[in-house]
Design goal:
The protein is mainly beta. The protein folds into two domains: 110 residues, no CATH class; 223 residues, monomeric porin ompg (Porin). It has two helices and 22 strands. The strands form two sheets. A twelve-stranded antiparallel beta barrel has the order 11-12-13-14-15-16-17-18-19-20-21-22. The chain has a six-stranded antiparallel beta barrel with strand order 1-2-10-6-7-5. β3 and β4 form a beta hairpin. The N terminus is likely disordered.
Length: 374
């Protein structure tokens, strides 16, 4: 009997905990897009750039359509509407940018910030970008040192055991941080860090060992004056056993210009003044140089997610005109599975003043698997 009397009291905490358990947040109401011919799409507005609107329909998937073909558009989520000729500079808060739910009709966008706020109206022809409010606030946030990095890590290896024993390894990484990374905002700064390594060794009884040992590390920091013009500082370290180069150090700075800047391709030209220190296996060939680096860098996204990259640089030395050098790289990255890709790269370096007995040119062709970090 005593146990039966306790049952209601034991049930009370359970029912109370159940009643107080958090409910799943309700799903946002769908957005509605109505075409000029009366056809309706149910889903969510993703963004708008210029005269194009991207809408993700529950049935039709992602659809891109021009504003002029839309009769009405209503959203339940909040968006920011950035007018044309509005510059969002460093430290901007976005307070002057209309933000709220959208109701578009008669080619005018009405932005409703809340029940106690007066709606604002922006003509479709004056809207440069329509961006999700959360993405807009994130874009204006100043990231910390370890935030917003993108990049990849590549590695390849081979092993042979026979009369000759050989092992080769190639690898590297590439990290880039563009602030802000959103294409609808002018860039403030960009940081680039690259590393590549190629090591190989062939051994055979009663035969001298043959070794390949090549390393390259560079870093660059860009500060933008405009959306295409920037100043930069750079450094680079090189070691190439095949050219008798123990260590080459390069430090400098200059200006760069982005000639082509689209969603699928970019082309940059750069020029700088640099200090170069060369240390060779034969120490009498060591020298300090003052020169320039003239370079171009091209990136293009191809169909099926294939990425092509290419760089070329020429480094004349002004205090020793015979001590010039050059480097060229080209590579393809082809998606294989999720974040894994197949990388095919080539690197050619030219050094006009190697020590006696070493060739001026060094060429590498490498393949390996690449893992994209973000």
């Amino acid at each position: 009997m005593r146990g039966r009397k306790l049952l209601p009291f034991l049930a009370i905490p359970t029912l109370t905990a159940f009643a107080q358990s958090p409910k799943n947040p309700p799903k946002p109401e769908p957005d509605v897009l109505i075409f000029t011919d009366g056809e309706k799409l149910i889903g969510h507005l993703e963004r708008s750039t210029g005269d194009k609107v991207t809408f993700k329909s529950d049935m039709a998937g992602e659809v891109t359509v021009e504003w002029k073909k839309i009769q009405e558009l209503h959203t339940s989520q909040k968006f920011a509407v950035v007018r044309k000729n509005v510059e969002l500079h460093r430290g901007a808060t976005g307070a002057d940018i209309p933000q709220g739910t959208l109701a578009m009709k008669d080619q005018k966008i009405e932005i409703n910030a809340g029940p106690e706020q007066t709606p604002q109206t922006v003509p479709v022809s004056d809207a440069a970008f329509v961006v999700d409010q959360a993405a807009f606030e994130k874009a204006l946030h100043r990231p910390g040192l370890l935030e917003d990095w993108k990049g990849s890590v590549t590695a390849g290896a081979s092993l042979v055991e026979a009369t000759q024993s050989s092992v080769t390894f190639t690898g590297g990484f590439n990290f880039v941080r563009l602030v802000p990374e959103e294409t609808w905002l002018d860039p403030r700064n960009r940081t680039i860090v690259d590393f590549s390594a190629s090591y190989g060794k062939i051994t055979q009884p009663n035969t001298p060992t043959i070794k390949t040992d090549i390393y390259h590390l560079d870093a660059e920091r860009d500060e933008y004056f405009t959306s295409r013009l920037y100043g930069f500082g750079q450094l680079a370290y090189d070691h190439n056993f095949s050219q008798g180069l123990d260590l080459q150090q390069s430090y400098g700075g200059g200006v760069g210009w982005t000639v082509i800047k689209t969603a699928h391709e970019t082309l940059d030209f750069k020029a700088s003044m640099d200090y170069v220190s060369q240390e060779f296996q034969i120490s009498t060939a060591n020298q300090n140089l003052v020169g320039s680096v003239f370079a171009e860098r091209y990136n293009r996204t191809l169909p099926h997610g294939i990425a092509f990259t290419e760089q070329l640089s020429v480094t004349p030395a002004w205090n020793n005109t015979q001590a010039y050098s050059a480097a060229a790289t080209a590579g393809l990255t082809m998606p294989v599975y999720k974040r894994l890709s197949l990388a095919v790269n080539s690197l050619d370096t030219f050094l006009n003043d190697p020590p006696p007995g070493f060739k001026k040119n060094s060429f590498q062709f490498t393949t390996g698997l690449t893992y994209t970090l973000k």
